[in-house]
Amino acid sequence: MKINWNKQWLFSKTKSNWDMIDLPHTWNGTDGQDGGNDYHRGTCYYKKSLSKAEIPSGKLIYLELEGTNSSADIYVNGEKAAHHDGGYSTWRVNLTPFLKDENEILIAVNNAPNDHVYPQIADFTFYGGIYRNVNLIFVDEAHFDLDYFGGPAVKVTPEVNGADAKAAVEVFLTGTKGNESLEYKILDGDTIIASHSATSGVRTVDFTIKNVHLWHGRKDPHLYTLQVKLLKAGQTIDERTVRFGCRTFEVDPEKGFILNGESYPLRGVSRHQDRPKIGNALLKEHHAEDMNLICEVGATTIRLAHYQHDQFFYDLCDERGMIVWAEIPYISRHMANGRENTLQQMKELIVQNYHHPCIVVWGLSNEITMGGAADPDLVANHHALNNLAHELDSTRLTTQAVVTMCSMDEEYVHIPDVVSYNHYFGWYGGETDMNGEFMDRFHAKYPNKAIGLSEYGCEALNWHTSNPVQGDYTEEYQAYYHEELIKQLFTRPYIWATHVWNMFDFAADARSEGGEDGMNHKGLVTFDRKYKKDAFFAYKAWLSDEPFVHICGKRYVDRVENVTKVTVYSNQPEVELFANGVSLGKQTSDIHFFYFDVPNETETSLVATAGECRDESFIRKVETFNEDYRMKETGDVINWFEITAPDGCFSINDKFGDITANKKGARLMYFSLAKMLLNAKWKARKNKQSKGKSEGIDLKNPDIMKLLNGMSVKRLISIAGNMGPGFEFSKEDVLKINRKLNRIRK
Questions:
Q1: What is the mean pLDDT of the chain?
Q2: Options 64, 180, 296, 367, the catalytic residue
Q3: Has 546 been annotated as catalytic?
Q4: Which of 86, 213, 418, 659 has its CA 20 to 30 A from that of 326?
């Protein structure tokens, strides 16, 4: 028997001044989202009373915690009962040996930095707290094992054979005496299609499912249910229920992802789970809303980054037919003392999620080579994780997300079965067309290795322009960026999976970009889930079968140009646009993007139609640009209006590559960059925490230079400031560089 134990806990940061709260809970719901990288990281305390009278007679009692970030200790009446490292998985402790008649259960949760529990460095907030459910589980001495890595103690492995399927079932028991029995049932809906009875000593059973109904992604996510009961003297003393699906899949380096023998392109998004004010302390309705939005955009796959997500969300993925990449938070910086924690978190991820048909790959790591890929211990850690994943689960593949600057020739890149890269060409420097070009280069050099794009994206807030450029944080540039990436990625069938970074804006308290500190704004949907950015509809046009038409730029009303370009997205073959009731013509498009030139005179009501679909918008002619649309730069060392840019001469608004193509410009730029790198390395020697970051820039790497060449100097300076000590420029430094550039003619 399991009961929820979320209500009426006491919480304190100091073991004094206790506040009554309900779980789920985080102490970083505000300070983890407001910027400054100063949110509270340390040990906080939760306590609650438990009377022995509340426990059914003769039962053992387990405490189950579904998520405590990032380490936790449990004390019963002051005696330590358990410790757990890792903030995103389920774990349990047997309280029975520690209980008296009246008991105080105290849980000390710690999200402070350390050198052995992942994650420690990453571009998201590490919310502290008990942010998922806490349950009490009452069991007899003989029960399904609760102590093995938080799993359900039931393992079902389907194997499709022609029209039928075999389901191999294994159960894990503890405390049995030999006089118990097991009763197995497989249900299709409410219909029992197979059953078996055995003594408790027979713990593996093979079932045959005739004329199997396949789990076929979003087209037909059919699920079966396995019920297993443990009986004693004919009475049920424990039971388990898990759902599973029968499917085949393969990843072909030339044809991409294949589901049940059919091509099934994986085109989707990544997801961070947090929300305003509550961080990761989500309720079921929050998870359901996220899933509904992801389904609406038409995604067929989700990368559940960068950690284990809530079991309820994996259940939703099963039910809605999402293909899932599930991973552990082995991210950004390899730690010599962290190997055991990576192995533990991988065991928990696989054991707890083995039965989910939605999952097809286990992710080993994300951008772990920020400090370089040559570390032998890093390589050995990946081999150990890869071997462990295959040992625990021979039915799925392994993968990892590789950072741009890591060479495709590194040994570490080729350890997992398939691989993906995180590329931001067109946002963090470079040009948008470099994304497809990289894919082609990798595919040509390693034709037998499946390649995907695990992250790509572009930030957008409520800033607007009619002339979007890289780094302006406007909704218009984000829409342009994703139009270009869609055309490149979705027309290359060999790319095994693509995952937009990110479906939702999310908190990263160390960030200072785009005019709102503490946030990463690459989401297709805003942090509060209330506004779908234009880029959301670009993907919906390509991926969704639900008929729709969408006029872009609804938040961009005031426009200064006499003729303005209006973009319309639709999954219908033809779109017509009306301005104040007058048709501007019909257009057809095989890329789902439609572009109209609209006369901008006084006030114009726009109506787009596509079949039975209709959308409306409004623009207004103004004489001067509305400054409410221009980014308010809170984190930059210099604002746009402080930059002088004489005609015919360079400024920091020009691209690094254009400036360095000029001899004088090259001398100035490389001198400034070399000075910055030397300063960073000097600071790295004094501050070991900065070392990995400082060593991550390699000017001999051609992909790094492509990024730099496509980036404006102003943007390069802004991004460098977020990379750690030694990379910062003062306002005086920037103005000095700009004045020198102003003296160099183009």
A1: 93
A2: 367
A3: no
A4: 213
